[in-house]
């Protein structure tokens, strides 16, 4: 009976998130416009400026657009993860988060379900982006589109867990804008999303080290290799470990006795 | 049969150095509507946060139908229905979708959920509007949907955190009378936080909370009899005014 309860709750939480997503078409469009601008404008402009050497998983010279496509998939997951946590801050201010936390299920389970729901939305966006990229002639092997699914899921869960962790520290929405600047931009620009590691190493050793150990880089590499039907075990281990670390800390953050909720105090009186 | 639905014993809570609740104790019984009366800043929201386990109190104890909220939180929360001060419905989803979501969180299957949704919405005269998006409802109707939602999983205790704030008089009266009907017909225990005196019925119980302390608790009629004050308005005024000065 208990298992059935967990199953029904998960279906309910994921279903609600997908329904909300379908009802908010502007959210879907804006989630796609961002990476598409990078692809159509930024990548086209930089095509001539940045030469990409042959490096795994690529077996031939590739266009810059092809290189940054996995990075932009990562960007979709990153923004989606942060947006989900932004919605958690909003939900908590508005009270619907309290509605969720007051139901008779363990808090870790509720947070994980919320995370799965947010990731499902991110993965849908990622596939929509891949569809448009396909029409733009950025095409990977067909099986790559299957292999990429677990990579997108793990990457999305890891970045969502980071967002969840941040949301447990943020009291109000206003503080979130600052965190966006301090988290999203450093994660994105200090990664392999836009340029390969060896290229970063040419300009700065420090940046190279930071980019190498940036969990976002590892998620992007996991996605990049999967799209070309290859398995990157280091990226898998690193992304998985980062996920466990972030989700563990987020669960602590939402713990009613130990977490930040106590320190922050409630709204009202 | 009368049972203790909520027992709060010696509960204290502080945000840093600021004490929000100071040794609060009271009981709420089934078949009884207990009004938690207090001015803004009295500690009502903190008390509700602790009862709903948004966070834990280090001092004191809360029991819901005999289950300790800290140690047996899942059993305790399963018996609790809540209407929060702010609307917590999803405005982009329909009434039914919102209620099905809540039913899923409580592990109620689709068939049983739809049956209960119909029952609760019919009771509140909202069944005809089940397909409408919540955004299209007025404040009073949203509140009715929230009450229906809080009752879907058949709780023993219903917590209402200032549910009538911002509503017009007919909507307020409809909610007040509906909740009192629930108490008498279904033996439900209700804890209703408010600062609106006119929401109190003659046979309600009353807890006056001020600056984190319980200033009075018991049946309204008994409090009036013991103190010699005329009405709940005077009780509220006398108990909360002196220390505010």
From TrEMBL, chain A:
Q: Name one GO cellular component term.
A: ATP-binding cassette (ABC) transporter complex
GO terms (molecular function) for this protein are: ABC-type transporter activity
Q: Which domain of life is it from?
A: Bacteria
Bilayer topology = Multi-pass membrane protein
The residues forming a coiled coil are none
Q: Which family does it belong to?
A: Belongs to the ABC-2 integral membrane protein family.
Per its record, how is this protein called by name? Transport permease protein
UniProtKB/TrEMBL annotation, chain B:
For this UniProt record, the keywords arranged alphabetically read as follows:
ATP-binding, Nucleotide-binding
Q: Which ranges carry the ABC transporter domain? A: 6-236
Q: Which GO terms describe its molecular function?
A: ATP binding
What PROSITE patterns does its record include?
A: ABC_TRANSPORTER_2
- A Pfam family cross-referenced in the UniProt record is ABC_tran
Provide the transmembrane region boundaries. Answer: none
Q: Which PANTHER family does the annotation name?
A: LINEARMYCIN RESISTANCE ATP-BINDING PROTEIN LNRL
Q: What is this protein called?
A: ABC-2 type transport system ATP-binding protein
């Amino acid at each position: 009976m208990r298992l059935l309860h967990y199953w029904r709750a998960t279906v309910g939480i994921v279903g609600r998130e997908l329904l909300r997503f379908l009802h908010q078409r502007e959210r879907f469009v804006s989630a796609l416009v961002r990476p598409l601008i990078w692809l159509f404008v930024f990548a086209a402009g930089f095509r001539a400026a940045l030469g990409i050497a042959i490096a795994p998983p690529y077996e031939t010279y590739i266009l810059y657009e092809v290189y940054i496509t996995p990075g932009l998939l990562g960007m979709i997951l990153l923004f989606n993860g942060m947006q989900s946590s932004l919605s958690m801050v909003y939900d908590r201010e508005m009270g619907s988060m309290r509605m969720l936390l007051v139901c008779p299920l363990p808090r870790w389970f509720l947070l994980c379900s919320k995370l799965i729901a947010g990731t499902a939305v991110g993965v849908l966006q990622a596939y929509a982006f891949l569809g448009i990229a396909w029409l733009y002639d950025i095409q990977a092997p067909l099986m790559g589109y299957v292999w990429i699914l677990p990579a997108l899921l793990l990457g999305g869960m890891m970045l969502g867990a980071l967002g969840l962790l941040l949301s447990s520290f943020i009291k109000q929405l206003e503080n979130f804008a600052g965190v966006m600047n301090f988290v999203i931009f450093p994660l994105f620009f200090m990664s392999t999303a836009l340029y390969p590691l060896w290229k970063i190493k040419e300009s700065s050793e420090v940046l190279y080290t930071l980019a190498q150990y940036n969990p976002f880089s590892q998620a992007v590499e996991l996605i990049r290799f999967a799209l070309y039907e290859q398995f990157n075990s280091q990226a898998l281990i690193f992304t998985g470990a980062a996920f466990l670390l972030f989700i563990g800390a987020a669960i602590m953050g939402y713990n009613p006795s130990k977490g930040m909720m106590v320190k922050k105090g409630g709204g009202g009186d | 049969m009368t049972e203790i639905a909520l027992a709060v014993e010696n509960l204290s809570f502080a945000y840093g150095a600021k004490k929000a609740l100071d040794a609060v104790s009271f009981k709420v019984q089934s078949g009884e509507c207990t009004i938690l009366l207090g001015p803004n800043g009295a500690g009502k929201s903190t008390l509700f946060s602790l009862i709903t386990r948004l966070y834990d109190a280090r001092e004191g104890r809360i029991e819901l139908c005999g289950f300790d909220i800290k140690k047996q939180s899942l059993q305790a929360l399963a018996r609790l229905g809540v209407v929060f001060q702010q609307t917590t419905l999803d405005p982009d989803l329909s009434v039914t979708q919102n209620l099905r979501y809540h039913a899923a969180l409580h592990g109620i299957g689709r068939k049983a959920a739809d049956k209960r949704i119909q029952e609760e919405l019919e009771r509140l005269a909202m069944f005809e509007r089940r397909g409408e998006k919540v955004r299209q409802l007025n404040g009073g109707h949203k509140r009715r949907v929230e009450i229906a939602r809080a009752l879907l999983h058949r709780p023993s205790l219903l917590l209402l955190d200032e549910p009538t704030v911002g509503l017009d008089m007919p909507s307020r009266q409809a909610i007040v009378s509906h909740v009192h009907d629930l108490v008498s017909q279904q033996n439900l225990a209700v804890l209703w936080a408010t600062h609106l005196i006119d929401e109190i019925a003659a046979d309600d119980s009353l807890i006056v909370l001020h600056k984190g302390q319980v200033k009075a608790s018991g049946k309204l009629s008994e409090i009036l009899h013991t103190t010699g004050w005329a009405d709940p308005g005077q009780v509220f005024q006398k108990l909360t005014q002196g220390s505010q000065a």
